[in-house]
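The protein record now logged underneath.
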Amino acid sequence: MYSPAYFGSRYAPTKVVESFYATQDIRRPFEVIGHMNALTGRAESSQAKTRQLVIDKAKEIGGDGVVFSEINRQVNEKSTDDFTIKVVVVKFK
């Protein structure tokens, strides 16, 4: 697995990152500080590893939360399909 690609602002590293599956689930004020795109697989073990890589990256860039928002599939003719997950990184106010 590769480290997620990140585009956005950076802050002091954080120790705890909460995960969500919709911004509506966040029950406190926040701002979006950036976006990630991470490779993942179909298997639950692959998704768990991707989730941890995303959380580790969010800690590194100073995020307080991540929102796993969309999974995309790219079909390849000569290899297995690629799956990517879009992630929104938030900072609590």
Remarks:
- Helices lie at 44-61.
- The two ends are 32 Å apart (CA to CA).
- DSSP finds one helix and five strands in the chain.
